[in-house]
Design brief:
By secondary structure, this protein is an alpha+beta fold. It is 29% helix and 15% strand. The chain starts with 11 loop residues before the first helix and ends with a helix.
């Protein structure tokens, strides 16, 4: 679901039902005939012999996963996100193999060999790609695995700490992960990253999460069409009004979806917000037991907040054939508009790396992005 349009209050009832499902309610508990609103108290009752729960919106997501740093902040934060869905499912569907071997732990802080660690960075990953934090140019490749067929953890798929991700020696130092963003502050979907080609998507932390979820057995759609994930700069970043807003973040939390928050040289997981002061976020920081708090668009531990990564497991459905015909006609119009002077040029930005690609490829992605916006695909 693309939550970047409309306020959260108007859809509070629908999101409350999604939050109840995400909280792991059993199939026999049916939330019916209940009005949900912000600030409501938690209450229970019996309606027509069916158990009823009401949950307040806002606050911190229930039954979350809080993990200690494990060979990279970004795979650790992604592991917490997937650990949440492993523990709770989403909209009535189980996702209990996102952390293989059993239910994801609620915390790995102080735990002995938790399952979550192997999902974040496996022994094979450590043997292949780790020599010490900040190191580069020295991947041991000592596991004996066939790469990438033998990949089995988030850090593998996300490219964390891997020296050569494009065949030209471009990669990540140990502990670091790359996320791409559109420089005009609009959302960059995983299918768009895929469209830029291997050298880009193989260095994309977001696309790596998409790949890991597929490895775990869950279909987010074809790589050239999936809208289940996107990266986006926050509104106001680089003094641009466009971008992902605090209200959008509230909507994600109200819908029962945690959010990856990108700071300078760090990634944390957003799991809630303060009802009294909605600019205050509840986060897990990968460093110590949380939740902790930070200000939206501010800094945390001296690191400025600049972007987000979202995951919506309820992927957009395939449109009807008649809709596809109309969208195809719309695409021809968009192409004509571009050829004779219309659509804006859009770039891709990666921190500390100048990125370029053939102009035709960039413009083709513009057509696809606008097709998605016009047709809702």
């Amino acid at each position: 679901m693309d939550t970047r349009s409309g306020g959260s209050a108007a859809l509070a009832g629908r999101w409350a039902l999604a939050l109840l499902t995400a909280a792991g309610m059993s199939a026999g508990i049916l939330p019916v005939d209940v009005s949900y609103s912000r600030g409501s108290v938690v209450e229970s009752g019996l309606v027509h012999e069916r158990t009823l729960d009401a949950h307040a919106l806002g606050g911190t997501l229930p039954n979350t996963a809080d993990y200690d740093w494990w060979y990279g902040c970004s795979p650790t934060a992604a592991g917490m996100m997937l650990g949440y869905y492993d523990r709770n499912g989403y909209q009535g569907s189980p996702y209990d193999n996102l952390i293989p071997g059993g239910m994801a732990e609620s915390t790995s802080h102080g735990a002995s060999a938790p399952l979550a660690q192997a999902a974040i960075a496996s022994d094979g990953y450590i043997a292949d790609f780790w020599t010490g934090y900040g190191n580069s140019g020295d991947d041991p490749l000592a596991s004996g695995r066939t790469r990438p067929d033998g990949f089995n953890s988030l850090a593998d798929f996300m490219g964390t700490g891997q020296d050569n991700l494009d065949g030209s020696g471009n990669g990540n130092i140990d502990g670091s992960t790359t996320f791409w963003f559109y420089t005009d502050n609009t959302a960059l979907y995983s299918y768009e990253v895929y469209g830029y080609g291997y050298d880009t998507y193989n260095r994309s932390g977001m696309f790596g999460i998409y790949e890991y979820i597929g490895y775990a057995g869950y279909d987010l759609g074809a790589p050239d069409a999936s809208t289940a994930m996107f990266n986006q700069y926050i509104a106001g970043y680089r003094s641009m009004p466009e971008g992902f807003t605090l209200e959008h973040y509230h909507s994600e939390i109200d819908a029962g979806r945690p959010v990856l928050l990108h700071l300078d040289n760090h990634t944390v997981l957003g799991v809630g917000y303060n009802e009294t002061d909605p600019t205050t976020l509840e986060i897990f920081d990968t460093w110590s037991t949380g939740p902790h708090t930070m200000t939206w668009g501010g800094s945390y531990s001296g690191r400025q907040h600049f972007g987000v990564t979202l995951l919506d497991l309820a992927a957009v459905p395939v449109p009807e054939p008649s809709t596809l015909v109309l969208c195809g006609l719309g695409l021809l119009g968009l192409i004509g508009q571009r050829l004779w002077g219309g659509l804006p040029h859009r770039g891709v930005f990666r921190e500390n790396l100048d990125f370029d690609c053939p102009l035709w490829q960039t413009e083709l992605l513009c057509f696809v992005a606008n097709l998605r916006r016009v047709c809702g695909v």
